[in-house]
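Bit of a strange request maybe. I'm writing a small parser for structure token strings and I need a real example to test against, not something I typed by hand. Could someone generate the tokens for this chain?
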Amino acid sequence: MSESKVSIIVPVHNAAKCIEDTIQSVRSQTVQDWELILVDDCSTDCSVEIMERYECDNIRIIRLSKGVGAAGARNKGLRAAQARYIAYIDADDLWSPDKLERQLAFMAEKECAFSFTGYEFADENGVGVEKIVHVPAKMSYRAALKNTTIFTSTVMFDTEKIQKNLLTMPNVASEDTATWWKILKRGYFAYGLDEALTLYRRSSGTLSANKLTAIRRVWNLYRNVEKLSVIKSAYCFCFYAVRAVIRRL
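Reply from user aminoacidic:
Good idea to test on real output. This should exercise your parser:
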């Protein structure tokens, strides 16, 4: 196995409208030393049929018999992963063709265990809308509590530098952010590559509801997962809210 091989994990649930585009964005990578693990979380549409068209030696489908949610699906994929590097992409997001190449080179340069990149918002058709999210060069646990800009479809981990089981996601809302905090709390740093290498597809009809849901989820993380005081939670939340608004302007 190559020292730079990447296991790419995708949780899939009723993603028939976009999963083919996501698979193609992985297949179009300039780096071809990867395995794609598609974890179907009991889809009731034709997601599995679409994925089966691409099933081959380096594209695997894990079919779950019981729904486990996005965190559980990613954890199933993580256990099946065989490569040194772990990356995630959600079933409706897209990567630039050089995403893996740029990020692997960046991690080698920084000699880091955990990296993430910038990204661009996209419409329902996966077309970028020129709203770019820039990321800081380095983030600690304390900084991450006030800045939830680490986006799941941009992260990459080096399992030679970080224990693989530390990547396991908890069964809580905003499980991805909870996982980044858990890792950073152990003394790791997240290194940001400030290039928009991912397209984050959003559904315009649900944005208002998503904002309210995000507020509730982040507050729950502060109070019930991280066990922060009300004052400390409010302090961190103010920074989070300002940055979240700026990202969407």
